[in-house]
Specification:
By secondary structure, this protein is of the alpha/beta class. The protein has two domains: 122 residues, 3-Layer(aba) Sandwich (Rossmann fold); 246 residues, no CATH class. It contains 15 helices and 15 strands. Helix 6 crosses helix 12 and helix 13 packs parallel to helix 15. The chain starts with a strand and ends in a 6-residue tail after the last helix. 40% of the residues are buried.
């Protein structure tokens, strides 16, 4: 039976300290707050009357809470950016402690809002990870994704349909002042299809029927609303000419496959792409919760040789294979990477049932074992 065991996210906020908590809508921020911080005071800006009060007169925050004791939470703070000036004053002059949550930093950054100048930590919540759930069915996760409501639903496709229609195509477009919602919808589909591939603005623009400039803006919107992210290429090759183009991934494998209109059956090419994205999502969750300064990149030579992920300064190189058997030909890119300088650990993460080692120093690792080692801190710190 599917269930959430416990969220891996923890805050550990010292008294008198404040923090931003970012993450896409429906990732579980509000649920975590209700269950982990039941005694905190919450100002929920998704409530229309609460929003109207603070949007019309942000000074109400200072008037109501300047003598407050304990943690004060402002949920969806990006809806009223001017509140951050009041937050700043209350931190500096009254020593208050805030948790400021949001699903989009776009309005704050574009409006040059007060981001508190280092007075608040930054934390991110991701979709569910392998260690947070019971009843993990990999093939089902490829369709449902790992947003909690979708993962637990008996009908995840209906949840995904509502999420993409009501949130991705309407709310995100409205916040970013996108005028042509059908074009943005087409862009989302093309972005999902090309997720995990080298970022080619011209190709996406041609497929979506919009300009290169607009495409770049749309990708920025996805990053600023935590719905996608770029993975940079490894650039420090000594012996090879490298591809310096980034890759782009959407934030959830279920959302990606729904938008791309694909059903990734085990053994198919679509499954391989989805499996690669799933492994990266786990690495991103580990980075968010355990190792926020961990560099994540990929290695691709101009000859086409590619290694999916490099963690740290070539501490761990990871090739992801969605097949039940890894063959010698699957190792050639890791070997080529090794010839370009030392790599501490070289892994092929796959669907094989048992781990094994092959020359030269490559470990074939079942995906469940890889994730257990990752979250135990045995691969990187």
């Amino acid at each position: 039976m599917r269930s959430i065991v416990k969220r891996a996210f923890s805050l550990d906020l010292p008294a008198g300290k404040s923090a931003f908590l970012w993450g896409p809508r429906k990732v579980g921020k509000s649920y975590w707050i209700r269950h982990s911080l039941p005694d905190a005071t919450v100002i929920d800006l998704l409530k229309t009357d609460v929003y109207a009060d603070y949007a019309s007169r942000p000074a109400i925050l200072r008037e109501r809470y300047q003598n407050h004791r304990g943690l004060l939470i402002i949920d969806e703070v990006q809806k009223v950016p001017s509140l951050l000036d009041e937050v700043h004053w209350l931190i500096e002059n009254r020593g208050l402690s805030f948790l400021l949550t949001g699903s989009s930093a776009r309005k704050l950054r574009r409006g040059h809002a007060n981001l508190l100048g280092g007075r608040a930590w930054k934390r991110t919540m991701t979709p569910l990870s392998f260690i947070e759930v019971k009843g993990f069915d990999l093939e089902r996760v490829m369709m449902s994704g790992l947003l909690p409501l979708h993962f637990l639903s008996p009908n995840p496709l209906e949840e995904l349909r509502a999420y993409t229609a009501d949130y991705l195509k309407e709310e995100i477009a409205a916040e970013a002042k996108v005028q042509d919602i059908p074009a943005f919808s087409d862009f989302l589909r093309v972005a999902a299809i090309s997720s995990s591939e080298l970022l080619n603005y011209a190709n996406v623009a041609r497929e979506a029927g919009i300009s290169n400039r607009v495409v770049r803006t749309y990708f920025d919107i996805l990053e600023e609303t935590y719905l996608g992210f770029r993975v940079p290429p490894w650039k420090s090759s000594k012996n090879r000419r490298m591809i310096l183009t980034e890759k782009f991934y959407l934030f959830d494998v279920g959302v990606t496959n729904y938008l791309a209109r694909r059903r990734p059956l085990l053994g198919s090419a679509e499954f391989g792409k989805s499996f690669e994205q799933f492994i990266l999502m786990e690495i991103m969750a580990y980075k968010a919760y355990r190792s926020p300064d961990l560099p994540i990149s990929f290695w691709r030579a101009s000859t086409g040789q590619e290694v999916d992920f490099i963690l740290g300064d070539k501490e761990v190189a990871i090739e992801v294979k969605g097949g039940a058997r890894v063959h010698s030909g699957d190792l050639t890119h890791l070997v080529a990477l090794s010839e370009d300088g030392p790599v501490k650990k070289k892994l092929v993460v796959c669907l094989e049932q048992e781990p094994r080692s092959v020359d030269p120093g490559i470990r074939i690792v079942p995906w469940t074992l890889f994730l257990k080692e990752l979250w135990a801190g045995d691969l990187v710190r």
